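dumping this here before i forget
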Amino acid sequence: MNRTFDPLAGRALSRLGDVALSSWGAYRTLFAPVFSTKTRHWVARTRAAAAFFNARRTVPAYEEFLREHGAFDARRFEDVPPMDKVGYIKRWSLEKLCQGGRLPLHGAVIDESSGSSGQASNWIRGPSERAAARRLLQFATRSAFGDEPFVLLNAFALGPWATGMNVSMSLVDLCVLKSIGPDAAKVIGTLKLLGPKYKYVITGYPPFLKGLVDTADIDWAEYDVCAVVGGEGMSQPLRAALNRRFRKTISSFGASDLEINIAVETDFTIAVRDALASNASLGDDLYGRETLPMVFQYDPLNYYIESDADRNLLITVNRLENVSPRIRYNIRDRGVVLPMREVAAAAARHGVDLPAPLVDLPLLFHWGRQDNAVGFYGCKITPEDIQHVILRVDSLGDRVTNFALHPYEDDDANKRVDVWFELEADAILPETERLREAVLAELSAVNQDFRESIKMVPTERRPGVKVFRHGQSPIPSQDIRLKRQYIL
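structure:
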């Protein structure tokens, strides 16, 4: 990095980005064919470097963080130490994480998310970055659903959590909005009230939408409904089940730690995912032996995304105005990034026909949480949560020798999760239903997001609990030389 050129060039490119975000027409010019993949990558990296220099100069916590790591004068962007929630966010006060060492007192919003300990993490967003995020979400919506007016029924959880409120605040200028929250009866009631003469977009967590289409007393064929899901991955069978009622269902990738809507599914990425599902050798060629990933495209001008040797995603928000900057932020998600042309070329080598992409944007292949968390109705359940539960439930305690989370989809493509416990030798099996209630109660106590999410889960789809005698569980013997597996 050049400490003179990069800040100046990045600042100039930041101003260019501000102009581009001023209108839909201006924004689309940034993705014109005249700009090559190489040019976009250079711009993205230069803007990321400028964000680094700006954060180093203005954020007290980041200066201390860099000096602790001996990286204040990092020569290359790749030498900048990644930050994460534990090693950076939780070590300094919210004020010291902000530019100027203080909170903006006007126009700022604080979102909240909980970690495995149940202690909330807070994320502050200033007025300028909220405006930018709002514009980007509006542009993504127009790109996905066109310019025709629509009614948005926002069924994401509302309150201090990032997604629900930010979706509402961002899209109200673009549509007729009703912020409902995850309440199926109210979603259906609104559809019946307004009738089928409007186009609708429903946003929510994948399991909620699955329950909605399964239980709604409504003739979906009369309605033109599209859906946007987020908060967790979506399988292709689940998409197919939703699309039997909806005209189109796409997924959006984001994180409370960063921003919502960092990357989205497009017709091209959905076709790529279908091709990967039917042609394993294509996946081997692109990223090696992995399970089927979610596939997104993203805007490299606003997000510089890398992955390290362990395939941790490192994300830099490339804008200078963010109150609490994220530079090479490790969100503990597993993924890799590949240029669109490389993916298209690999598909051609394997004889796979793909639709022409609308824009030449990089692809993000995403395998979910790196730390073994299971997504469930918009919350994350981690092995640490279950460890807390074991310690708090009397009938478990020191009787448990092994445990695992078992996510799966049932025959109707409903997302489910079971918690498996294997007992010590000679331990007495507890009564399962009573144990299940105790486990869910303690899980609610230690995981704030689960406590809210469980309110919208139909009773019959709440997490199950299975207890096995010693040596009789499906949990494999753990090789102490390998990272322990908690997700099976």
